[in-house]
Amino acid sequence: GYNRKTNVITGREGLLMEYRYTPDGWIEFIPEKAPLKPAPVENVTIQFRSGLSNEWQWSVFQTPRTELKGGELYLNALPEGPGAFLGHKVTTGNFTATVKVHAKKSTAAAGIALIGDEKNNLTLWLDKDSVRIMQIRDGKETRLAGRKVNRQQKMELRLEVVQGKTVQFSWGAENKAAATWNQRVDIGFLPPWDRAVRIGLTAKGTETEQAVFDSFRIINH
């Protein structure tokens, strides 16, 4: 489950439909006269210039330590599993999420992730002069890929999800062409039945180390 500033339902949700009593004391549902229009899907751009909105959530088992200053988000790390994470809700099955990391200020590994829960997630990590893609499935951690990078002051980490089934990762310096890990990863193992998958901003290291994020955006396709 997840926490945020207000209560949130992430899995089973109730639906309302009008009904009326029949002459014999039963009920019957009244058909909708017109189909309801789906709510518009909006893109997300966050610059971290003010407090975190209720769109950000976190595990009930882990309260992240954060600080906003100078238009950046400082997230204190944790050493185990996916590290410390903040999750943002996902509204479609086709989107690209990008986070800009202030690599020069970050003392912990900084990442962008798809988070089902602490034991099921996929993360692209930027750690000093390398990137790595780590999968945690049923609590077992597996390194999928890794390579050296020419780390700049600010780096962008990106994930692209297609039809809610696969994800592809890429990274690059700010305003530079991105390098892409060509393999698409199946994300069907992320638990969908009682909790919604989030896009996570992650920090891994000692509890006094921090990952620093400059901006975050989600573009829906």
Structural write-up:
The chain has strands at 2-3, 19-21, 27-29, 44-46, 56-59, 66-69, 72-76, 84-89, 95-102, 109-117, 120-127, 130-137, 140-148, 154-162, 166-173, 179-180, 185-186, 198-204, 210-220. The chain is an all-beta fold and 221 residues long. The two termini are 27 Å apart. Mean pLDDT is 89; it is low at 4-10.
Mean pLDDT: 89
Structural class: mainly beta
Helix-strand string: EEEEEEEEEEEEEEEEEEE
- Tally of individual helices: 0
What fraction of the residues are assigned to beta strands by DSSP? over 45%
Radius of gyration: 20 Å
Shape: elongated
Distance between the termini: 27 Å
How is the main sheet built?
9 strands, antiparallel
Uncertain residue ranges: 4-10
The total of beta strands comes to 19
* Helical proportion, percent range: under 10%
Provide the descriptors you would attach to this structure in a database record:
221 residues; mainly beta; elongated
What's the helix and strand layout?
Elements (H helix, E strand, L loop, with lengths): L1 E2 L15 E3 L5 E3 L14 E3 L9 E4 L6 E4 L2 E5 L7 E6 L5 E8 L6 E9 L2 E8 L2 E8 L2 E9 L5 E9 L3 E8 L5 E2 L4 E2 L11 E7 L5 E11 L1
Antiparallel strand pairs: 1-5, 2-3, 4-19, 5-8, 6-7, 7-19, 8-18, 9-14, 9-19, 10-11, 10-18, 11-12, 12-13, 14-15, 15-16, 15-17
